[in-house]
């Protein structure tokens, strides 16, 4: 498939089910026969009726299954084990007619988890914080996955029905209402989507057809993008991409762990996703974008298709996080082992990746490839002081703000905000949240919960973490403890004011300039500067005062930095944003 498939709106119940010998439709308790059609599809002559509850019974040649939900269900009101509900896609009226979308360049992204961002724990709760986010300087909110999962508590990466929305968050209408409200505040909405595996609880897709194939991603079976009958699995994904960007008015998608897509074909699924996003943009008259997460340091993700790449708008950049985190925290275990010096941070700030074809001691091999910084804008790379992964995949789910004093927290933020890359905040970091963000789940199967707990302990032991204090993922208290608390102490208010100021200065001084050759980075063993022709950031990564041989007019410092015409004097772990005179 070289171009996105034409999309039609079905008027009767249809399901792709090449595996069973027979299929029956059950609508509101009444069973109907189905007729085989082309390419493994089954059709009925029963018209779609909004609000109807439906599912399918599948015959494997010997027995009929229980009634199971449609893999393409748009709504699962009773959860992943319940019947689907037929939806009316015209029932919600958007009011964002003047919204034209955004591209990553110049944006500030805010990653959040719907269930723990507010005490309310749903889309409506997020709406109550839109003014707060706008005042902070956020222009894009990134929702961690909202597809249905087993139980009521989950990070979202265990989704099983890729066209639906978790009912506990507000369902399809709740998500649309949030998007509409965000657009009214000038804030775009991204959705984190998982197309590299299915969750283990409530996954009935394999009863219908070969949605997965042999192999393991460490989270689940490999999604079938290449073996027999894979065309419809690809369409399942591409139709979901199109749906989010059109029916839900979502502005962009964050694609989880794309290195786990096994696709050796001539046209990679990522290129097809990008074409689908471009189709959605053309049809809606709004900008749409895709951002990839990958641990491969692969410049092909954001390289244009004409140059052999996939043409995505951006990708996450863990190397800058690792370089910054190790410098400030002193941690250098596991995948942090090659980081921890200002020289490494300088390399990432000017060349995107540290591992760009050089040796990785953690992996025991060379890793990554260099980015052509003359052809790839800095906005193509998303940088951060922490993420849900970098916090939640610690043994206790402890945030940097639980271990670092305010000056170190804000120093990291200053580097991210003053770099030319696209900055992203993880919910709560902007005020130094003191609540953890631990891994949590509530699978409906007790054995799954037990195995998940065991798996977390094995993983942390492998990386050298102390596993004694690992919280039990299925314990409701683990989830409740991870909810943000919005009553700020004076110290937290001071950190929030600093973040707000840094994001304002990023806009005022146009620090999101597109090309890396407009930025110079210099360093010693203790300090580093990010320099432009009119302004520079000087950052001290030591517990001693540092004098930087660059001067000018002090614009901002969180601590007590000073600037003269010839030098900038930095407090321990301090920074200064200075205008050249």
UniProtKB/TrEMBL annotation:
Which residues catalyse the reaction? Answer: 256 (nucleophile), 293 (proton donor)
Keywords from UniProt, A to Z, are:
Carbohydrate metabolism, Cytoplasm, Glycosidase, Hydrolase
Pathway membership: Glycan biosynthesis; trehalose biosynthesis
Identify the domain of life: Bacteria
Q: Which of the seven top EC classes does this enzyme belong to? A: hydrolase
- Pfam families in UniProt: Alpha-amylase, CBM_48, DUF3459
Localization per Swiss-Prot or TrEMBL: Cytoplasm
Domain (Glycosyl hydrolase family 13 catalytic) spans 111-456
GO MF annotation list? 4-alpha-D-(1->4)-alpha-D-glucanotrehalose trehalohydrolase activity
Per its UniProt record, what InterPro entries does this chain match? Answer: DUF3459, GH, GH13_cat_dom, Glyco_hydro_13_N, Ig-like_fold, Ig_E-set, Trehalose_TreZ, Trehalose_TreZ_E-set_sf
Q: Name one GO biological process term.
A: trehalose biosynthetic process
Main subcellular location of this protein, as a coarse class: cytoplasm
- Any one cellular-component term (Gene Ontology): cytoplasm
Which family does the UniProt entry place this protein in?
Answer: Belongs to the glycosyl hydrolase 13 family.
Q: What name has this protein been given in UniProt? A: Malto-oligosyltrehalose trehalohydrolase
Provenance organism: Corynebacterium mendelii
What gene codes for this chain?
Answer: treZ
